[in-house]
Amino acid sequence: MPSRRHFLTASGAAAALAALGLPPQALAAQSMKMGPAQAFSFDQLMARARDMARTPYQAPPAVPAAVLDQIDYEAHGKIHFKSDYAVFADGPGPFPLTFFHLGKFFRVPVRMFVLDGPGNAPAPASTPTSTPTRARELLYRDDYFDMPADSPAHRLPAGSGFAGFRFQESRLADQQAKDWRKNDWVAFLGASYFRAIGDLYQYGLSARGIAIDVAQADRPEEFPDFTQFFFEPPAPGSDTVVVYALLDGPSITGAYRFTLQRGAGVTMEVDKALFLRRDVARLGLAPLTSMYWFSETVKGSGADWRPEVHDSDGLAIWTGAGEHLWRPLNNPPRTTASAFADQQLRGFGLLQRDRNVDHYLDGVHYERRPSLWVEPQGDWGQGEVQLIELRTDDEIHDNIVAMWVPKTPARAGASYRLRYRLHWEQDEPFPTALARCVATRLGRGGQPGQARPAQVRKFMVEFKGKPLEGLPFGVKPEAVITASRGSISYVYTEALPNDVAGHWRAQFDLTAAGEEPVELRLFLRHDGQALSETWLFQYHPFTSREVY
């Protein structure tokens, strides 16, 4: 295969780089065809999104649907971006940039642009000596990808566009580990979805740029698309890359700036401006999407051979009042929406707290899936953290959504400016000093040797942490329990019989007739002082039917 420098000479891309103001080594993708230069700034991008919202929505240019339909899961898996064309692979920054191909499940073409400087530079020159930032588009060709000779992708026309992108691991940091071409740390692919691997080197749940009308009975969910991305050249030796995005959909437009930092985990600073074309019934800001099939909480009847299957096992919230809440996830019998009203929210996230490999027994490493925490920057005002849970019977479906929904109705013509930080890590970045919930288990209520009534369920909720370690000998914490309906009985607490200091469980029976959900609330206290975070649970009564 000819070298990258051979392609550079053959295509005249050196002149294109010079026109951009970039040194020849700035792009390893020297041979990629580029469009003409155009002025760029984040202010310009926001103004463009605002202007678009004043006009009717226009779908992206159509790519031949008959060809995309043939690029199914198997065919798409055989298409790989050639590392010889990776952007920024030879400098100045440490993170090579590669692209995903279009296909049956990624149908919307996304345009990719490279900037010649910081994207927050003013577009018009403020002084005679200032130079505005410029952008040039990277134009699609199928020879940028390794694919079989008979791949249907060869039938797509030149300039069709890409499906998404990913940043590979730093070549410098990865020299003693693995080839950077085989490992990426962040990926944007499909609608407004994106993911990062965190500090355990494993993809799991996703974030989204926006969520529109999730689980609304009177209308379908809308999935706006990131239609354009703009990449700043990373600084030499930096652990940070900056990406800008344009969002477009029937109900909304938006401009985004992502500052992506690769440290022990992955941190993303998100700055976005949103503009509504039309009313939205449920506007989800900073949305997170995950999968929860089953765990130790409720045992199904032969649902699967593994003990647990989930990307996340709970929703954590740090309220404006300073309370830490933990809500274990459900695979409900029907779609449910739970709302947690708050103001001056400090943060929320979908977490994977259970890290015991023996609880999964699976080579796909659910025990290493990242937790994702949303840290608001500034005051988001009044609203709700909403949790949407959908029923699933397989691990291939994302059935969990958590998001911030403002209290003020989302009406056509409204605009939003929002900043927040996303933490992709194995644990929440601001854990409570109180004991945390580590397990929730349900079983038949009543007492051994006696008839077990069908409408009674037993709950075992485990907590672990330093406040429980410091209890005087012989002192038991009090379980403070409330239920939205039904009655509570057989309440007691005990230290687990495993000689692990500070590991306690609260046990109680709930009697509740009917099928309406029961909202439960529990925490441990002693001498008037809370010892644990607050456990919340939505219980769906069932009798003898199978759970899954």
Automatic annotation (TrEMBL):
It comes from the Bacteria. It holds the Pfam family MdoG. PROSITE patterns: TAT. Its main location: periplasm. Keywords: Periplasm, Signal. Residues 1-28 form the signal peptide. Belongs to the OpgD/OpgG family. This is Glucans biosynthesis protein.
